[in-house]
TrEMBL record:
<comment type="similarity">
    <text>Belongs to the class-II pyridine nucleotide-disulfide oxidoreductase family.</text>
</comment>
<feature type="domain" description="FAD/NAD(P)-binding">
    <location>
        <begin position="6"/>
        <end position="299"/>
    </location>
</feature>
<dbReference type="Pfam" id="PF07992">
    <property type="entry name" value="Pyr_redox_2"/>
</dbReference>
<dbReference type="InterPro" id="IPR050097">
    <property type="entry name" value="Ferredoxin-NADP_redctase_2"/>
</dbReference>
<keyword id="KW-0560">Oxidoreductase</keyword>
<dbReference type="GO" id="GO:0019430">
    <property type="term" value="P:removal of superoxide radicals"/>
</dbReference>
<keyword id="KW-0285">Flavoprotein</keyword>
<keyword id="KW-0274">FAD</keyword>
<keyword id="KW-0521">NADP</keyword>
<comment type="subunit">
    <text>Homodimer.</text>
</comment>
<protein>
    <recommendedName>
        <fullName>Thioredoxin reductase</fullName>
        <ecNumber>1.8.1.9</ecNumber>
    </recommendedName>
</protein>
<dbReference type="GO" id="GO:0005737">
    <property type="term" value="C:cytoplasm"/>
</dbReference>
<keyword id="KW-0676">Redox-active center</keyword>
<dbReference type="GO" id="GO:0004791">
    <property type="term" value="F:thioredoxin-disulfide reductase (NADPH) activity"/>
</dbReference>
<dbReference type="InterPro" id="IPR023753">
    <property type="entry name" value="FAD/NAD-binding_dom"/>
</dbReference>
<dbReference type="InterPro" id="IPR008255">
    <property type="entry name" value="Pyr_nucl-diS_OxRdtase_2_AS"/>
</dbReference>
<dbReference type="InterPro" id="IPR036188">
    <property type="entry name" value="FAD/NAD-bd_sf"/>
</dbReference>
Length: 315
């Protein structure tokens, strides 16, 4: 018979690992399913300088590795598996994973959100070497250097404006003439003297794969078909994020963009009514802040609620 777990944590980024530390210290022996991208977004970041407690900063993968060791020290189990399907209609909950079926009394959803990428091989090869999807994390490394931001929504405008604090020049590249960004954000970005807008423009290749650092972008005008090289030292993607929550559709409420809808940042609902024993934390339910520290905070909250639920309903 399948063993019933007290707590299963879905995802091994900052939110999931913080939940694991708290659950493990509460003696719940949580099982962490590490998911498609073990370590989450921090594991593809370079220096993290805004996580409290690290005055000199810490490399994202090292921070994640430390959290994992910390959770393991208190007895968390880890499994390299991802969730295919879930049954939350009956209790205990049934999880159908790539490593078989798991039954659990509480579930902490910390499956995160994945940045959208262009999907070019050269882009993928240079992630962390001048290609980034997080201006807050990596903008600092581009002091007095030219960079490009891709996208035409609020994220791209926000990134472009933020990056003007560091970059010598920001070129915003958008594939269409119209923008999705809100009027106010667009006007602010357009009014900035250090942001140049290029519309109808796509990136065909990121240059610098051999040198292991971004040397420029090969651009194409989608109207004229003309190509040219733009000299930049960095490329920031601002083309949106995708929450990793598709497998929960129909089981808990998701918003119109697929993020888990929560009450009080962690309580999941079905048709607006709280689902007892199922909590969500981190970027899978946060489209606004998306910071390591906020993910850690909600991870802690979710674990404490799971513990409280088990105390009240028996283990
Ligand atoms: P978004 O509104 O969906 O915009 C994504 C942009 O990226 C679009 O311009 C899209 O182009 C472009 N794009 C998507 N895939 C692309 C590809 N493969 N190649 C090139 N371009 C591509 O996403 P978002 O900007 O992340 O915003 C998401 C939500 O968060 C929005 O509701 C937004 O208002 C909100 N948000 C608010 C703030 C704020 O208020 N401060 C900040 C950030 C985000 P097309 O237009 O051609 O499709």
């Amino acid at each position: 018979m399948t063993e019933t777990r007290d707590t299963v944590i879905l995802g091994s980024g900052c939110a999931g690992l913080t939940a694991a530390i708290y659950s493990a210290r509460a003696n719940l022996k949580p099982l962490v399913l590490e998911g498609h991208e073990p370590g989450g977004q921090l594991s593809i970041t370079s220096l993290v300088e805004n996580f409290p407690g690290w005055p000199e900063g810490i490399q994202g993968p090292e921070l994640i590795d430390n959290m994992k060791k910390q959770a393991a020290r208190f007895g968390a189990d880890f499994q390299l598996a991802h969730l295919n399907r879930v049954e939350l209609g009956t209790h205990p909950f049934r999880l159908h994973t790539s490593a078989g079926e798991i039954v659990t009394r509480t579930l902490v959803i910390a499956s995160g959100a994945s940045a959208r990428w262009l999907g070019l091989p050269s882009e993928q090869a240079l992630i962390g070497h001048g290609v980034s999807s997080c201006a807050t994390c990596d903008g600092f490394f581009f002091r007095d250097r030219p960079i490009a931001v891709i996208g035409g929504g609020d994220s791209a405008m926000e990134e472009a404006l933020f990056l003007t604090r560091f970059a010598s020049k920001v070129t915003l590249l958008h594939r269409r003439p119209q923008f999705r960004a809100s009027k106010i954000m667009l006007e602010r970005a357009m009014a900035h003297p250090n942001i140049e807008f290029r519309t109808n423009t796509v990136v065909d290749e990121v240059l610098g794969v051999e040198e292991k650092e971004v040397k420029g972008l090969k651009l194409r005008d989608v109207v004229t078909g003309m190509t040219e090289t733009l000299h930049v030292d960095g490329m920031f993607l601002g083309i949106g994020h995708e929450p990793n929550a598709k497998m929960f559709a129909g089981q808990i409420d998701l918003d119109d963009e697929g993020y888990v809808l929560t009450q009080g940042n962690i309580f999941t609902t079905r048709h607006g009514v709280v689902v007892p024993g199922v909590y969500a934390c981190g970027d899978v339910q946060d489209r606004r802040y998306r910071q390591a520290i906020t993910a850690a905070g909600t991870g802690c909250m979710a674990a404490l609620e799971a513990e409280k639920y088990l105390e009240e309903h028996g283990r």
